[in-house]
Every structure is written in C-alpha cells, then in structure tokens.
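Suppose you are handed a protein chain with no further information: no name, no annotation, nothing but its sequence. What can you learn? This example shows the usual starting point.
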Amino acid sequence: MSWVDIGENFFLWALTYITSSENYYYHEHGFIFWIIFQYTKLTLHLYLDSKANITRTPFSQQNWDRKKWCYIINIISFVLAGATFVIHNVQCIPYMYSLYAFAEYSLVFTNVAFNSLCMEGACDGKMKLI
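A reasonable first move is to predict its three-dimensional structure. Written in structure tokens, the prediction is:
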C-alpha cells in the first residue's frame, strides 16, 4: 500500500463521515483531495502498467482493456458530476441534482471496478473469496 492509497482512503473516509450539511468546507475539500489522489493512483497505475515490459496473456489484455474503460468512464463521470453540480447551484433546474447524484455514483462505481480489476490482475484471475 502506497502513500497514494493511504491518501485516497483517508479522504474517502473523511468524505463519507463528514456530510456537506455538517461541515461543507471539510466535505468539499475531502472530495477535492479524494479526486486528486484517485486520479493520481489511476493514472500512475495505467502509465506504469503500459510501460511494463511483459507479454500480455489474453486474460491480462482483457483486464487491461477493462481498466482503460473504467478510467475513461470515470473521467466522463467526473466531468458530468462537476457540470451538473455547478448548474444545480447556479440554476435549480428540475432533476439536475439527480443527474449529479447518478454521475457521482458512477464515479465511485468505476473507481471500485478499477481497483477490483487491479486486484484481479495481480492474482492473474485466480482470486478466491473466503
């Protein structure tokens, strides 16, 4: 576990336990730093994995492709979440906050999926649940 993982988990924990109605400043900064650590980790992982001098098996190639798709969808979700959040705060358009919530859930889901794919790739597809 690296400092990037620790930072990501800490700020996700802070974001989860400090609600925006309780303390907007800390909740907002928890989200900002979680995003920074998340994208640092995702980008570093994809970059280092692309530079690894390995021959990919069909499984590892499929795993690599899925990680790239998770990364792309994660970025799209982040942009959509940011745009809908700003629009919701500037003009209260019907269902804009619902779209923001959907984008935020998609952001979290793709992060979890990416991390799961990293674990699966590290085990070469032989993960077992105990």
